[in-house]
Design a protein that fits this description.
Blueprint: H1 5-12, H2 16-23, H3 31-41, E1 67-69, E2 78-82, E3 93-100, E4 115-129, E5 132-137, E6 141-145, E7 150-167
Helix pairs in contact: 1-2, 1-3
């Protein structure tokens, strides 16, 4: 609306402090305060409650049904299965089931934003992270920042099966303005 917090608070008949408390969930506004805010924002009172009762998508991938995808690490004896994602403008979590059945001396190293978690379901691998190497066996897990180069550096015991969960970085916060 192009209003400062002060201007919006004035239009709603509230103090700036009260508006700030409502905005940050530090107080529960009364019914009359909600009506004043709706009037100041020129929206119906019900606009504050839209979407609260809407069902959200749930993605179920039956066993063995994850979609095989082309991945930058794909190659002979390497299968990447996408375990589903929620619809939306961005993919917040990438969940993969990775199977490596054939030895290969050359693996790509990966870099991406956000964090990654891997859990070894079967087999043993030497996993590189930056300049360090970690021996990961069945039941081991590892969590790390995706910006650091990482990936398998040696296959020790095949087949290797692991889950990989990549969590995207949060969106860049826009500059905070004191506008409503």
């Amino acid at each position: 609306m192009g209003l400062t917090m002060e201007q919006f608070a004035d239009a709603a008949g509230l103090s700036t402090g009260m508006l700030s408390k409502v905005e940050h969930g530090q107080t529960s506004p009364s019914f009359s305060t909600l009506i004043a805010l709706a009037d100041a924002a020129e929206v119906p009172f019900t606009a504050f409650f839209r979407g609260l009762d809407e069902e959200r998508d749930a993605v179920v991938v039956p066993a063995g049904q994850g979609m095989e995808i082309i991945h930058e690490g794909a190659g002979p004896g390497r299968v990447y299965r996408d375990l589903g994602s929620l619809r939306g403008p961005t993919r917040e979590i990438e969940s993969l089931y990775v199977t490596i059945t054939e030895p290969d001396e050359v693996f790509p190293l990966f870099q991406h934003g956000g964090v990654e978690f891997i859990y070894i379901l079967e087999g043993c691998v030497e996993y590189g992270y930056g300049t360090k190497r970690y021996l990961l066996q069945t039941g081991d897990s590892m969590q790390f920042r995706g910006e650091v180069t990482h990936g398998p550096t040696a296959l020790i015991d095949l087949p290797l099966r692991f889950l990989s969960l990549k969590v995207a970085p949060p969106p860049d916060p826009s500059p905070t303005n004191s506008t409503a």
